Amino acid sequence: MRVTSAALPTDATATDDAELSTTETMDRSLLSAIAKSGEIEAALATDASRFRVLTGDRPTGRLHLGHYLGTLANRVRLQDLGVQTMLLVADYQVITDRDDAGPIAERTRELLTDYLAAGIDPMRTTIFAHSAVPALNQLMLPFLSLVTDSELRRNPTVKAENEATGGRPMSGLLLTYPVHQAADILFCKANLVPVGKDQLPHLELTRVVARRFNERYAGGRTVFPSPDALLSDAVNVLGVDGQKMSKSRGNTIELAMTEDETAKQLKRAVTDSDRNITFDPVGRPEVANLLTIASLLGAGSPEDLAARIGDGGGGGLKKLVTEVINEHLRPIRARRRELEADPGYLAGVLAEGNARANEIADATLAEVRETMGMTYR
Ligand code: TRP
């Protein structure tokens, strides 16, 4: 069924309505985002330059196949379509739920290396870091004035992230980071944000912040346009143990691994005792996951791959998937090694991206001060 957005609530109602339960709000905004995403894909095909995308990651470690297939490949696609793309290294977001920043400089360099190796082109995509763009961070102050503490407290993503820290008291930064994220998106007036379902509440809050800013501080003039979500096709790649792919589980295949490390990791992969390989996501989720990974990397449909392996069993499956991954990642890994050998180049890319982001942020902050009558200086 194709849902049209006309039949669904627009951003004017969803989050403001205190009567709605969190789940209802989620469902309504999910439906509306799905409908809208379809329209946006069509518009992207005809005029990509209308769009400015902002997206980003916390620099918490090397990127793995889950990131690559889930978001990174899509960012490269948008960039290559001609969308203006802003790519944020969300360093201040790292400290929302831990006691120290960790080896953040090294992790930022790793993230940058993964981006560039995977095809992000710094001539077309602006890569920058929170901590290097003061005016972006300053926007958080007026924005915080536009939300209530109860709106922040009922954010389902914040709640889930807080629970995942296992009883650690919630920091003020974790509670308010969705507002910081609104500043990430609005400082450059991005109109499109590629997100997974879990980030939809943040985007909804960004729209609320934009709308309230325009109403309360700008007399109804549109200083901040409301961004739309571009929902990714829910590619959900599992790790080699069949659980969610995540660094802490040690079940990832990192872009930075060698071919041998990849083979070793695949050897550990969970399969089952049925030697005849079939694509059965419900009955044989681990086998299906490996077939899906190979398929997403361009090796053919999961059914065809299964037929090709036939009675080869788990061993045959792992061998094929290892080859597909290593072949696909070979040029990315080669590029990665070149980049690693040139830290000066990497630092230059980030410095240039930061400079561009600062220009944009300074202009937006100046406009905000002007709008709010704060022009005495
Ligand atoms: N929250 C995102 C993550 O954990 C990173 C991020 C920060 C982001 N600011 C953003 C994503 C703005 C989209 C828009 O990966």
From TrEMBL:
Keyword Aminoacyl-tRNA synthetase found: yes
EC number: 6.1.1.2
Region: Disordered, residue numbers: 1-21
Alphabetical keyword list: Aminoacyl-tRNA synthetase, ATP-binding, Ligase, Nucleotide-binding, Protein biosynthesis
InterPro entries reported for this sequence: aa-tRNA-synth_I_CS, aa-tRNA-synth_Ic, Rossmann-like_a/b/a_fold, Trp-tRNA-ligase, Trp-tRNA_synthetase
SUPFAM superfamilies: Nucleotidylyl transferase
Keyword Lyase on entry: no
PROSITE patterns given in the database record: AA_TRNA_LIGASE_I
NCBIfam families the record matches: trpS
Family to which the UniProt record says this protein belongs: Belongs to the class-I aminoacyl-tRNA synthetase family.
Official protein name in the record: Tryptophan--tRNA ligase
